[in-house]
Amino acid sequence: VGGRPPRALLGPSPTCRMAGVTLLEDGTEVCLPVPDSWSDSDEEADGDAPVPAAPAPEVGQADDSGAGPAEEPAGGRPSALDVLAGIPDHNHSRRRLADPSEAAASALASLAELEPLPEQTCETLACGISAEEFSQRFVAGPGRPAVIRGVPEAEAWPAAVRWRSQSAFLDRYGRLPVQVTEMSALHGLGRPYRVELPLDEYVAYAGSNEVDWPYYVWERNFVGERRRLLDDFWAPGVVRDDLYDTTPDIREFLPLTCHLFVLVGGRRTGSNMHTDPKWSSAWNTLLCGCKRWVLFPRDTPAADIGAFAGDAYKDGGPPAYWWVDHYPRLRAQGAELGMVDILQRPGDTVFIPAGWWHATLNLPSPGEDVTVACTRNVLPPASLAYVLPRMRAADPGFARTFVETLRRLRADAPEFLPEDEARVERPAVVGTCESWSLQRRAAEKLSLAECRREFIRKGKSLIVEGLGPHMLSAESCGLSREWLSAHFGEKCVAVYRNFTSPEYRRGEEDRTELLRLREALACLRRGDAEAEGLYIYDVSLPLQLPGLLEHIMLPRYFSHCYLQQTMRPHCFSRSWPTLFIGAKGSQAKLHVDQWHGHFWMHMISGRKRWTVFHPDDAHLLAPMVPPGKHHPVFPSLADLESGAVEAPGFRQARRIEVVLEEGETLFVPGGAPHLVVNLTDTVAVAGNFVDESNFDRAMADIQAMAADEAPGGPMAGVATALGEIDFEPDRALHEELLPARFLVVRYRDFAGGAAASWGPVPPGEEDDCCPPTGDDS
Predict the structure, then answer these.
(1) Burial of 450 (0-12, 13-18, 19+ CB in 10 A)
(2) Are 608 and 749 within one domain?
(3) Which of 7, 138, 494, 742 has the fewest Cβ atoms nearer than 10 Å?
């Protein structure tokens, strides 16, 4: 676009224009002017997208980006070194750590020779220990750091020769462009930009700079000429089994683009005290120079060791400061905290167990200016006893999918997976009242016709089991928080909070705020006070998160909705399905759904307790219809049960109490008051629908609402759309028992009513039709 003004693409015309303001309709795409040589994509041009300030140099031949040799940038743009020099945090020497006359500088230099205290050393192993023994001794249980000697030579890595010294490394890769840092885009959009230098220029920088926080090469983008680096090394045999490699979808939870690195660092570079992400362990093999490590056990308080919480260590200031400010004290006292001190030398591989704190400092050899190492995060099977409880707490959807995938694809899964949690027997019938109870039915034993005839038409609650494995795409990993954040995190959603803690006064329990989805999910992941009462409630996927519909199926039992079969659109045409994400303890208070709409919910992860009252007993719950409204509101269930409100017949109201478990699908008939409490963090999808069984009552409510609105209002449109169709009540009333995979539908087949007219077997599945089996998946 260059310097042209913004313009709308592929959408309707702007609705109006004012001075400096353009109002755009839904679906309008906007193209903003940015410099034509800037790119924020690691994938663009096969991943080589250098920051415009630093054109990538030639490495042998031009790499995949087409960048030529390093030259003075055209058009007056600054060079990469000029860009790097403009970042204040990395260009100060407040503590003069490069000045040999300073005590702090001398202390840092001495770490290359200072041997760890005997009580703070870890076990050093010869390269020959079996993977099984290594896992038992160092990965399992609390984990133990270890140093393995001689991996590059023993496993014949080309890096053992090519990376053995700074000069050997530069002879082969000196003109290879590598990432020195990332910069946020000036225009505020997209990903950060790579700032690259050829390796020989970085080494020259490392040897000449005098700043306290020099740049450190963490190269993770192995495309173009950088692919050659991956030919020089591979995972050591003792930690080669990485469960995150089980499937490509599981791999995306901890992508190698973020957790496989070649590291080149000069003096005063390293990492602040931190733990590795996603409960991963790691290995780090040094080929050139020395590296100092300090590690602490998982349960060590961060404040005791100068650590930062979460990802804050990345912005925690110069890593060398930690070694000046904290290492001397901890060397003297660290044995009490279980401190492990390692001086890593060329050929050494350090193993870092999951959850262990660690900090590093690069110490180039005399006459050299950098260290060279490779590292990768892994999830060894023996660490699962530690990992799984934390994974389930942080991302229950992914944890469930992860375990199911391991059981399906790894024959040895029983050897390392914790035993199945005892399954609580789920009763086939819930409720003691003959006229108001709930049945649990297996999908492959419940026909579409029986569901409609015996449950929906008769207004009986139902739970269907067995649809869970077919409701989500494999890519979504059970709608994991990580996946939702990565793909839909910037979408804004309404977040409700209903606090139950006594410190919140009555009348102030509920509030709503607009958050990015990733912000709300981060609150749930942390599980702190900010997560209390958090509920993303009834978010329309077609209207707010349409991209998610590609990854979610809908239960076919409820896909015959009349609202989808009208000829003209109306305000409910794209309302469902909806998404619910709730924190433990959040709840939907006692209510009844509008216009006697039937309701279904599929439980993706977590557990919900449902209290459902008989529709004919709603009058016993002290309902009140607010002025100008058509639907009742109810007191809280707690007030009804305590007698705080007058409801003489409340004890006679028929009710069902049931816990909806992962993978189950619930049907609640229209007009039934219900209360829902999230017993754990939960994710669910749901929908309301109208069919022949509630059509008359729904139309009566809709017409009454239309009468109160202005002519041509939205409810009048719904009434007109429904009233002009002669629906066929028995269409698609199939008696056949079908495999569960035939009992879910895509949104595109639900929208517009296509699925409502199918035969027993969905279109395109005829050749795959087979009788259902008891273990259908």
Answers:
(1) middle
(2) yes
(3) 7
